[in-house]
Amino acid sequence: MTSASRPYKGFTPRLGVYRVLHHRTGKMLIGHSPHLTGTLNRLRFQLDLGNRPNRSLQQDWNLDGAGGFTFEVLDELTPLEPLADPTDDLRELLALWRENLRLRPEDEY
């Protein structure tokens, strides 16, 4: 077990599916993460600094600012085994959300 996989002083990260929704266009960035809070914080930080690799998302952020977006957790997973790798479960949950939202390529960043 590595130190990265051990809960730090009782901290267990939230894992699940997130969405960043642009209000004006309805476009979204949807993904999964084993650490939702950290991922959403990183996304905000990159956008605030102007260095998000996704140029289309960054341009919309530059135009509309933080108020033009919603950052949200769509769903969370509770692992049955605390040290098990949740990647496959997260991918499956993300696929279910893509289907549920009826996402088309033009709807996403």
Automatic annotation (TrEMBL):
Entries under InterPro entries matching the protein: GIY-YIG_endonuc_sf
Q: Which CDD domains match?
A: GIY-YIG_LuxR_like (cd10451)
Give the protein's recorded name: GIY-YIG nuclease family protein
